[in-house]
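User: Sequence in, structure out. Go.
Assistant: Echoing your sequence, followed by the structure tokens.
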Amino acid sequence: MNAINAQTILARAQEGRIIVEDFTRLADSLEWSLGQQYWRDWGSNAFISESVPVPYAGNTYSGFVRRRNGRRVGANSRPDLPAPS
């Protein structure tokens, strides 16, 4: 694929896209502000009280969970890697 085709594809993929916020540091971003407000409002209740709670197992420091999820992501993005067990 030559550069002109890649640029055309990229331009078409971005047509009609609405930019909510231009590039900024994460700590200064709208996403960060909204996340902080969410945690202020919900605190630890976010893990148990919401209709769709924060998945605690995926947010812990368990090496097993990270390795398993890493293999799953890798298998979906790289067909040459072994399937997760």
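User: And one key feature?
Assistant: The mean pLDDT is 75.
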